[in-house]
Amino acid sequence: MWQILRKGVVGATLLAVALGAAACGSGDDADGPTIVVATFNFGESLILGEIYAQVLEAEGYAVEKNLGLGSREVVKPALESGEIGLVPEYTGSLGNFLGVIPTADEQSTWQAVKDAFEANGVTLLAYAPAQDKNGFVVTGDTAASLGLSKVSDLAPVAADLVFGGPPECPERLNCLPGLESVYGLTFAEFKPLDVGGPLTVAALDGGDVDVGVLFTTDGVIAAKGFVLLEDDQGLNPAENIVPAVRMDIVEAYGDDFVDLLDSVSAEINTPELTEMNRRAGIDQDDPADIAAQWLADKGFISG
């Protein structure tokens, strides 16, 4: 999975604006540094950020929220510089940014990425069972008419199809370059859209694209009757959700802090995350309310 924003001036500008904006804080009663929880700029990340921030607040930690900060091009430097302290990450995509070659093996990917990130002053806590990968999606009608159930089924027809995805898809190893190198697919046209969001959904719905990129935990896939094509050649690696945290914060708060977040992560599974995404994307529920209900249901906070 990736969170994309154009590099360079745009990223730098967003970083300055977002970090300069007023953050929502919980107070300064905790004995340690304030933990600035940031997220990427899409719904699932906002929900996950709320989950980690709210449980920390409930346990008396000093927390500020900088949710929806931007893409990894924006968030990663802010985390490494200490301007933010915690981000819900994705193991495989983060590995690609750190020069690690991720695989489908969850533990080895997590360990390799953790080792690489610690050189930059950031560590990974325990990863969640939940994974969210980039998925290649077609409408039910397209799947039925072309006999599509897995990505390799696109080989005979790709040259006649329009592919839609994030603007950076032509540069991402797990998007168009990977589809070409792993699956031998070359599409008739690429249309730049958004990062697994409403533009992609509308383009699929309206027939403007034949194949689109959505996140595999997106509740809209089932709601719209879309077909998520099986990644039968394993283009996308393990993408477990994991808190990436400044090492100085871990050192300041110790085992209680780590154990709390590890216990939360252990409860985040893919079906429940997909349902939370459905509530945010289809029902338009507030991510903060979705997170609070999940935490209450799991017994982490009072309902």
| Secondary-structure element series | HEEHEHEHHEEHEHEHEHEEHHH
Fraction of helical residues: 40-55%
Task: Give the end-to-end Cα distance, rounded to a whole number of Å.
Answer: 32 Å
Number of strands: 11
Parts with pLDDT < 50 across at least 5 consecutive residues:
2-29
Largest sheet: 5 strands, mixed
Shape: globular
- Which band does the percent of strand residues land in? 15-25%
Helix/sheet category: alpha/beta
> What is the residue-mean pLDDT, rounded to a whole number?
90
Summed up, the helix count is 12
> Which sequence of strands runs across the widest sheet?
8-7-9-6-10
- The Cα radius of gyration reads 19 Å
Short description:
By secondary structure, this protein is of the alpha/beta class. Helix content is 43%, strand content 17%. Helix 7 (176-183) links the parallel strand 7 and strand 8.
Q: Could you walk me through the main structural features you see in this protein, from its secondary elements to its overall organization?
A:
- The chain is α/β, with parallel strands linked by helices and 303 residues long.
- It is built from twelve helices and eleven strands.
- It has helices at residues 9-20, 43-58, 72-81, 91-97, 106-118, 140-146, 176-183, 198-206, 220-224, 247-265, 270-281, 287-297, and strands at residues 24-25, 35-40, 63-70, 86-90, 122-124, 134-138, 162-165, 189-192, 211-215, 227-228, 241-246.
- α4 (91-97) packs across α5.
- The longest helix has 19 residues, at 247-265.
- It is globular.
- It starts with 8 loop residues before the first helix and ends in a 6-residue tail after the last helix.
- The model is unreliable at 2-29 (pLDDT under 50).
